[in-house]
Structure formats: structure tokens, C-alpha cells
Amino acid sequence: MLLGVMGIIVFSVSEMSENKKQRFNVWILLALSIVTLIVDVIALSAILYRLSEYGFTPNRTAVLGSNMLIFGNLVWIMVDLYKASFKKAPINKVELTIARYLPIYMLWTVIVVFGFPLIFGMK
Question: What is the DSSP track for 73-113?
Fold first, then answer.
């Protein structure tokens, strides 16, 4: 669900233009990001419960890490959408925020693919 919402926000923001008045669309995206963050907090609490109850596994650790990355990205996007909605900041700042976060996702992917086999002793 988180990736679906991120996709909706990314594609919606990339289709918006500066010269058109699309404040309603920005408000909807802001509300969507807030609701998604609330749901993600619930998901993170469930993941943390499973980790405390059953211990760390590669899958649980990968899911926790990716959820935390998406949470951080959504918080950053939500702040930029808030600024675009209420403080008249340019909407392209949200696009820059999305683009700046891509190397962090790449780093996490490299850690999961190459680091997890070493960390968890997989052969």
C-alpha cells in the first residue's frame, strides 16, 4: 500500500504545472500523505511487535528498513506538500524531494542484496 501511495503522489506531482491553480489537488495529496503516515505508524508497530516477539530474520529486517525509509520519505514529502498548500511554495520542490531520496533507496537495496547474506550467514 505504501508503494502505491508513493506512486500516486509521484505521478500526480509530476503532472502538475506551476502556472495552473491546482491547490485542491495539492490538498488532496497532503491529506493522502497524512493518512498514509498514520497507517504506516500502525504497520511499523506491528513489525516491531513481531521483531520483539519472534526475533530478527532477513525478511522482517528488510520490511522494517523499507517501511522506515518510506516513512521518512513520506514525512519529507508531506512537509513539502504542506508548504506548497499553505505557504505558496513551488510544487516542484516536492519533485526534488522525491529525486533526492532515490539514492537512499538504492543504498538500502545494495545493503539488502549484498549485506544481508553476510549479516545473516546465508550461503
Answer: HHHHHHHHHHHHHHS---THHHHHHHHHHHHHHHHHHHIII
Q: How many CB atoms lie within 10 A of CB 26?
A: 21
Per residue in 9-40, pLDDT tens?
888 887 876 656 678 888 999 999 999 999 99
* Domain layout of the chain by residue ranges: 2-9+23-119
Distance CA 77, CA 71 (A): 10
| Regions in the chain scoring below 70 on pLDDT | 17-21, 123
Count of beta carbons in the 10 Å neighbourhood of residue 42: 9
Query: Can you give the pLDDT at residue 21?
Result: 66
Angle in degrees, CA 1, 104, 111, rounded to 5: 90
Strand (E) or helix (H) holding 1: none
